[in-house]
Amino acid sequence: MANKKIESVSKKPITPTMEDYLEAIFNLGKEKRVVRVKDISKRLGVKMPTVTNMLKTLSKRGFIDYEKYEYLELTDEGTSVGKEIHRRHQVLRKFLTDILNIDIAKADGEACKMEHAVSSATLDRFIEFMVFIQECPRAGDNWIRRFEAYRLHGKGQEKCLAHMKEFADGFTESMKIMGKKEEKDRGVKRG
Known about the structure:
About 70% of the residues lie in helices and about 0% in strands. By secondary structure, the protein is mostly helical. A two-stranded antiparallel ribbon has the order 1-2. Helix 4 packs across helix 5 (about 105-115).
């Protein structure tokens, strides 16, 4: 493949369709030794002439190195965009499946739509929220299960208040156990 450097003809924003192609090429490049037009066509469910037209556009914009009837490669800029779109997709899909308990197939399609619109700062906030849910003792799996029950069986304040009382009782009991353990540990250290 010719290794000529092509400058981006336009500084226009990248379209969601371009992002989809760059993500597909990025993922195919991780899976296969070489990326071909027919691989992209199959991955995206579009006809090969449509792929060829988009590849010409991506090549002119400096995202890929491509010559007709040859394999193609992402440029550094194309790799950067493809990798970022892939990351966004994974984070959003994980949020939809792990936190909101949405079916994987539906979550995958929804993540694909969302990945083009969400900013990096918002995506980082999604990640922070997911880590919080998974690590904070006041949240965790119990919190996610409570959300699912709330979503499925009623949204009444009474249930939330009952869950808060249950949490408070459990918290009080945990504090007593921790206090007894602390006293025991202090007694062992003195003795």
